[in-house]
Design goal:
Layout (H helix, E strand, L loop, with lengths): L6 E10 L9 E11 L4 E5 L6 H9 L6 E6 L2 E2 L7 E4 L11 H5 L1 H5 L5 H13 L15 H13 L5 E5 L7 H18 L2 E5 L3 H7 L2 E5 L6 E6 L14 H18 L1
Parallel strand pairs: 3-8, 3-9, 6-7, 7-8
Antiparallel strand pairs: 1-2, 1-4, 4-5, 9-10
Helix pairs in contact: 7-8
The chain binds adenosine-5'-triphosphate and magnesium ion.
Length: 259
């Protein structure tokens, strides 16, 4: 029996027209294919401008491909939905809402603000270490806390797919490690399918089941590398010889592209 892929991207072509009539159109993606298995943690790496965010935006339903198909759980993506949680480098929080109300925003918008949703929100806030900050506003939180709040805000909708665009790129080293640990624990518990964009080779090798290295603009798949390291993964695993070898393979694929 074959299981249906969580994500199936086939022959995707995406072009952006220039700002003026004279500026040339840009081809962001040209015949891009990628399949992600249910529960897989897939990391996407590639040179700046190769189309990673364009791809994530199409999976999120913020834009549509010009050609080809983008399927999530076998269905074409036609717009955004709570089944796909999106996390960016800058945490998306409403400044006028408390942390708890930010987390409850999704259920409220979908008219699902019942006792269960409130319970789930409080449990999530506790699991991201923000139980004591539930009544604080975003400007009263640290950068790392804002990230965790944005996480809880997405998770409360129980997404089947998490789309993460360099989510920890702007964090200091300590907060970044804390978020990586938190994400690994979450994924190991719930096995949500994750597509994770990063520029950090070590982060990709630590988190991913597979790493997709893209070519430069327009983006195609240059290499798909299996990260067959045991789970659960711990930060100290980054010191093993096997890990260093995998990092080298990823880096070589990236460098071949840059050359
Ligand atoms: N809304 C847009 N209008 C015009 N061009 C765009 C738009 N969005 C993306 N592009 C172009 O498409 C290409 C891919 O952009 P994209 O943001 O997907 O790259 P990326 O891989 O995410 O890069 P980075 O690693 O720097 O975030 C780039 O050439 C970019 O200029
Ligand atoms: Mg990007």
């Amino acid at each position: 029996m074959t299981t249906q892929p969580a994500v199936q991207i086939s022959g995707v072509h995406k072009r952006f027209s220039g700002r003026t009539r004279r500026s040339p159109a840009r081809v962001a993606l040209d015949g891009f294919d990628l399949t992600v298995r249910p529960g897989e943690f897939l990391c996407l790496l590639g040179p700046s401008g190769c189309g990673k965010s364009t791809l994530l935006n199409m999976l999120a339903g913020f834009s549509l491909p010009d050609e080809g198909s983008v399927l999530v759980d076998g269905e074409p993506v036609t717009g955004p939905g709570p089944d796909r949680g999106v996390l960016f480098q800058t945490p998306m929080l409403f400044p006028w809402l408390t942390t708890r109300d930010n987390v409850l925003y999704g259920p409220r918008a979908r008219h699902r603000l019942d006792a269960q949703a409130r319970e789930r929100a409080d449990a999530l806030l506790a699991s991201v270490g923000l139980a004591d900050s539930a009544d604080a506003f975003p400007h009263q939180l640290s950068g790392g806390m804002r990230h965790r709040a944005a996480f809880a805000r997405v998770l409360v909708n129980r997404p089947r797919l998490l789309l993460m665009d360099e989510p920890f790129g702007a964090l200091d080293a300590i907060s970044r490690v804390a978020m990586q640990r938190f994400l690994l624990e979450l994924w190991e518990r719930d096995r949500i399918t994750i597509v994770f964009v990063t520029h950090d080779v070590e982060e990709a090798a630590l988190l991913g089941d597979r790493v997709c290295v893209m070519t430069g603009s327009p983006g195609r798949t240059r290499a798909l590398i299996d990260i067959d390291l045991p789970r659960p993964r711990r930060l100290q695993d980054t010191e093993t010889l096997e890990f260093v070898r995998l990092k080298r393979r990823i880096r070589e694929a990236l460098e071949a592209e840059a050359a």
